[in-house]
């Protein structure tokens, strides 16, 4: 049995041991080809088979309708922050952003570089501890799209329902909660996510987009930054991140073998309940950062009575085999990221460690 850490990293993050072992078995000689998958042409039948299988599995597992494209791009979710307004924010239109935290702010900043971007709602005055009420979201009449960040990785907040935007395309940054729960894709014009939390390793960015939004990009945008370049070439216009796509495919097979997205969502809820219960049952020793109604099922953020105790908690947790529990510097405190591949056993061990730490220091 491999010596595996209790890995709560925010991303890149834990991958299932089975996936890593399968990749290890196939590493040097993929399917009897005498080559690693990363040594072969992306135009060959073997790689194309993997590429297409990953798209197909995503369609099946996430319920992606036929009139949506599934793209594998590069540059991370951060490049999508620019590509979205470059492709979709036409002259005379406004891009509307729901300001939920650090990542929404970064997306908004890029949009303002490209065109007219406005805030549709914001919880900044509440330190981004909550997701704004859907009824507070104001969509301008000339909106090109409404952008939301479905899960704020740093603050640890998550949308439970999504706004109804009528004819205005809803665009979701799902980098930190993609495939963690069922989603009605038809409510969205576009969904995007870096792979390195729930989908596999870093290096590939998933874009799921309604065909009409990616079929005719403005002619003035550089070729590689146009959605239509990638949509019309099955994401094979240039060399794709083939090894990352291969690992995403293995990860998708793992999701399927574990019962699909609904089963994963149920497992995630059980995992996070252990840790939120440890917070809520601590009599205030641990304090959740996010408002209870906006709590994330992916990133659990909490504080302790003093920064000294927080430092001690992190130090001791590392001695006990836990990794990645330090909160992001902008929020401070602790953060446990419990993505799809984080085992129940890791969450159980953390809840027990939290109780034990409190007994010794509370
Ligand atoms: N959006 C969210 C919600 C994220 O959590 C991250 C990365 N942590 C990003 C965007 C940026 O992703 P990338 O590093 O792939 O550019």
Short structural description:
This protein has 362 residues and is of the alpha/beta class.
What can you see in these coordinates?
The chain is of the alpha/beta class. The protein folds into two domains: 18-257, Type I PLP-dependent aspartate aminotransferase-like (Major domain) (Aspartate Aminotransferase, domain 2); 260-361, Aspartate Aminotransferase, domain 1, CATH 3.90.1150. It is built from nine helices and 14 strands. The strands form four sheets. It has a seven-stranded mixed beta sheet, sandwiched between helices. A three-stranded antiparallel beta sheet has the order 11-12-14. A hairpin with a 4-residue loop joins strand 6 and strand 7. Helix 1 crosses helix 6 and helix 7 packs parallel to helix 9 (344-361). It is globular. Bound molecules: 4'-deoxy-4'-aminopyridoxal-5'-phosphate (PMP).
- Number of DSSP helical runs: 9
CATH architecture of the largest domain: 3-Layer(aba) Sandwich
Which regions are unreliable across 5 or more consecutive residues at pLDDT < 50? none
Give the tally of β-strands: 14
What is the name of the CATH class of the largest domain? Alpha Beta
| Radius of gyration from the alpha-carbon trace, in angstroms | 21 Å
Broad shape: globular
Q: In angstroms, what separates the terminal alpha carbons?
A: 35 Å
Count of separate structural domains: 2
Ligand inventory reads: 4'-deoxy-4'-aminopyridoxal-5'-phosphate
Helix content: 25-40%
Could you give the order of the helices and strands?
A: EHHEHEHEEEEEEEHHHEEHEEH
Within CATH, the superfamily of the largest domain carries the name Type I PLP-dependent aspartate aminotransferase-like (Major domain)
Q: Given the helix and strand composition, which structural class is it?
A: alpha/beta
| CATH level 3 topology of the largest domain | Aspartate Aminotransferase, domain 2
Give the averaged pLDDT, no decimals.
97
